[in-house]
Specification:
alpha+beta, single chain, two-stranded antiparallel sheet, 17% helix
Length: 258
C-alpha cells in the first residue's frame, strides 16, 4: 500500500491509504468514564465553586508554576489550590528535604481548615503533591511518582529501580477509579520503565497503549481518524508523537495566581 503523510506542524506519522474499517478492540470503555472536555479547539476550563474564565486564566506552558503542597483531588490541582505545609500539623521541620515523604509515611495528613479546625485526609484522597515545582502523582501501591508530562493527557513514567515517595501504609486507587498494568520498556542496566497516562480532567490512570490512547483522543476527530488509520506497528511507534500533538492542539487553561 502507498503510505500517505499527514502534516500537522510536526513530522508526525504516515498512515495507510486504505484505513482499517474496524478499530482494534478498545478495552478502556469498561474502565473509563465519559469525558466532559470541550470539543477540539476549545480550551479546558475547569468546574469550580469559584468560577474563573479565560480573562483570569492562562494557557498552560512549562513556565506555569503550581504551588507547593498537597492536592486533595484533581480539581484542587487544576485550581492550583494545595494544602500548603504551613497548614499541615506535623513536628517535622519545614527545612527537612524529605518532609513530604515523612508526612505521607504516616498514611494520612492532618490539615487546618479555614475555620481553624483540623481535618484528616487519608493518603488515597491525595491526588498528588508539588515540591520545588515538581509534581508527584499518587499511583496507589506504587507510591507517589514524578509526573513526566503535563497536559490534557498526562504521562507518568515509573522506574522500579529508582527511589520514590511511598507511604508505609497501603494506598488504594479510589481517587482514580481503576488502574492499568502499564507497558514495560527495558532500558540499559536492566531496569524497567512502566508508562501510564490519564486525562487531567476526568477518568482513571491506565496503561499507555495505542488502544488506551485512541480512547483518550477520540474528542479530537482529526487526530482520532488519522491514528485509527495506522496499522498496529505504526500506532505503537507513533503514540508518543500523537500524545504530544494532541496536547498541543488541546491546551489546558489554568487560573492565574499572584
Amino acid at each position: 500500500m502507498k503510505r500517505l503523510l499527514w502534516s500537522v506542524g510536526l513530522t508526525l506519522f504516515g498512515f495507510m491509504a486504505q484505513a482499517q474499517n474496524n478499530v482494534d478492540s478498545v478495552v478502556a470503555d469498561t474502565v473509563m468514564q465519559e469525558s466532559k472536555s470541550d470539543s477540539i479547539g476549545n480550551p479546558l476550563l475547569n468546574e469550580s465553586k469559584e468560577e474563573f474564565s479565560l480573562q483570569d486564566s492562562i494557557k498552560y506552558s512549562a513556565s506555569y508554576q503550581f504551588r507547593d503542597g498537597f492536592y486533595i483531588g484533581r480539581r484542587a490541582f487544576l485550581e492550583n489550590k494545595p494544602i500548603t505545609l504551613d497548614k499541615v500539623l506535623t513536628t517535622i521541620p519545614y527545612t527537612d528535604p524529605d518532609i513530604y515523604h515523612k508526612i505521607l509515611a504516616k498514611g494520612n495528613i492532618e490539615a487546618m481548615q479555614p475555620d481553624s479546625t483540623y481535618k484528616y485526609y487519608s493518603v488515597d484522597q491525595i491526588f498528588g503533591f508539588v515540591q520545588n515545582r515538581v509534581f508527584y502523582v499518587n499511583l496507589g501501591q506504587l507510591g507517589f511518582v514524578r509526573m513526566s508530562n503535563f497536559g490534557r493527557i498526562c504521562k507518568v513514567s515509573y522506574d522500579a529501580s529508582r527511589p520514590r515517595v511511598q507511604p508505609t501504609a497501603g494506598v488504594g486507587m479510589n481517587s482514580w477509579g481503576g488502574a492499568g498494568v502499564g507497558v514495560g520498556v527495558q532500558i540499559n542496566g536492566g531496569s524497567q520503565i512502566t508508562e501510564y497516562i490519564f486525562r487531567i480532567d476526568k477518568g482513571p490512570i491506565v496503561e499507555f497503549t495505542p488502544e488506551m490512547l485512541l480512547e483518550m483522543i477520540k474528542d479530537d476527530e482529526i487526530m482520532f481518524n488519522n491514528y485509527v488509520g495506522l496499522n498496529k506497528r505504526y500506532r505503537l511507534k507513533e503514540m508518543h508523537n500523537v500524545l504530544r500533538e494532541y496536547n498541543r492542539r488541546n491546551p489546558v487553561y489554568l487560573p492565574i495566581y499572584n
